Amino acid sequence: MNEKRNSKRYDLEDRTLEFAGKVRAFVKKFPKTIANIKDVRQLVKASGSVGANYIEANESLSKKDFVYRVKVCRKEVKESRYWLRLVDSYDDSELERERDLLVNEATELMNIFGSIIRKVEINYT
């Protein structure tokens, strides 16, 4: 059972890494307006922070620390979703399609982190 739990943990590490990588590939295609440059910078920072904080959560020293780190993951992926919605694609249908996929992935990750938080808080309170 512990092996299955560890497998899920590392699958989520891989998934958050893939999310950050896809965001980076996505933003390279955007028009380089002043607003987009500022928004893209925030998006890249937040999307990378999701996985980095999840790795930190997996190395946490206590359940309280774990829950805190996963809450930070949820906050960062929620912020990523915000910046994804804000960057201006200038109605490029391909960029809009890619954005929708990334927004959906961010939403799924938010739900996963929320579920983890609820399960840990229920089991350890």
Helix and strand layout, with pairings?
Blueprint: H1 2-27, H2 34-58, H3 63-86, H4 93-123
What does this structure look like?
By secondary structure, the protein is mostly helical. The chain has a single domain (2-123), classed as 23S rRNA-intervening sequence (de novo design (two linked rop proteins)), CATH 1.20.1440.60. The protein is built from 4 helices and no strands. It has helices at residues 2-27, 34-58, 63-86, 93-123. The chain is elongated, with a radius of gyration of 16 Å. The model has no long low-confidence stretch (mean pLDDT 91).
Approximately how much beta-strand content do the residues carry?
under 5%
> What is the CATH level 1 assignment?
Mainly Alpha
Question: Mind summarizing the main beta sheet?
Answer: none
Task: Return the string of H and E elements.
Answer: HHHH
Number of strands: 0
| Average predicted confidence as pLDDT | 91
* Gyration radius, rounded: 16 Å
Q: Structural class, from helix and strand content?
A: mainly alpha
Q: CATH topology, what is it called? A: de novo design (two linked rop proteins)
Q: Percent helix among the residues?
A: over 70%
Task: Quickly count the helices.
Answer: 4
Flag low-confidence runs.
none
Give the CATH superfamily: 23S rRNA-intervening sequence
**CATH structural architecture:** Up-down Bundle
What is the global morphology?
elongated
Distance between the termini: 22 Å
How many domains in all?
1
